[in-house]
Amino acid sequence: MLNFNSQTLDDLAARIGKAIEASPAKDIEKTVKSLLQSGLMRLDLVSRQEFDTQAQVLLRTREMVERLEARIAEMERRAGGTTATSGTTPDGSVPPSIAPAE
């Protein structure tokens, strides 16, 4: 059975580390990393933090739109069915204030 002590393993790890640093593999690693970073920069990606921030903004905006739609529906109901979205009165005519100029 092999008997390795901590010092022997540390020496072996240090020698392997030095060998890798001096080898062409280290240069290849740097080149690949540089190419990947360059490619990702061209993709115009956003960070996870920015994505999460925009998702929260979108959620709040959707909630606000739903509240406003509910308020408009209630106002239309109280006004007797006038639809603000279509711009017509209950009888289907266009109010003079929004009728096109002739």
Structural notes for this entry:
- The protein is mainly alpha-helical.
- It has two domains: 38 residues; 35 residues.
- The protein is 66% helix and 0% strand.
- The longest helix has 31 residues.
- It is elongated.
Brief overview, please?
The chain is built from 3 helices and no strands.
Structural classification = mainly alpha
What would the average pLDDT be, to the nearest integer? 77
Individual helix count = 3
Strand content: under 5%
User: How many beta-strand elements?
Assistant: 0
Order of helices and strands: HHH
Task: State Rg.
Answer: 34 Å
Summarize the amount of helix as a percent range: 55-70%
Give the biggest beta sheet: none
- How many individual domains? 2
Ranges where pLDDT stays below 50 over 5 or more residues in a row are none
Outline, from the CA principal axes? elongated
Distance, first to last CA: 103 Å
Task: Draw up the topology in text.
Elements: H1 6-22, H2 24-42, H3 48-78
Defining traits:
0% strand; mainly alpha; 102 residues
